[in-house]
Sequence to fold (173 residues):
Amino acid sequence: MIGSGFSGLAVASELSRQGINAIVVDGLDFLGPSAALRQSSHGDPRALGERAEIMRLLRRYADTHQLDVRPSTRAVQVSRRDGAPQQWVVHTANGVLLAQNIVLTRCAQTQLRALLRSLGIKVGRDILAVLRALGMYLVGVGDAVVPTTREILKQAKLVSKAISAQATPPAIA
Fold:
């Protein structure tokens, strides 16, 4: 998981509930600050209060379930290893992390396209299909502004189900 805020903790918690371990790092340095950092609930005290309460619950869940959250670790580079089960290599100042899937949170479209270009990946119109095929997922990413709290939680559940489906062998009927 790249992003240790609300979206990252939501996905890590959902993955934990599915029995999948995740490592959560703070962000991806070479992309720079996200243009999507605006709050969609700006000016709505109820929405901000709701998000703060859910964030408190996510942090408590992460602590009590000993999720591997590294808020002071930032990814400095991401690369791929074709054909390997741990196909993603996440370089940090503290070492290298290997992952089957990567979840990016609060990443602007321009940053995402820059990341894909840096990996030598060309994307047409259906960027989400390309990302899924690569084992890369987005949570907390909207078209114009950051999605609502409810939408982020829905995205986190969908992504965790997609990742857990890969990890769990299909049942034989």
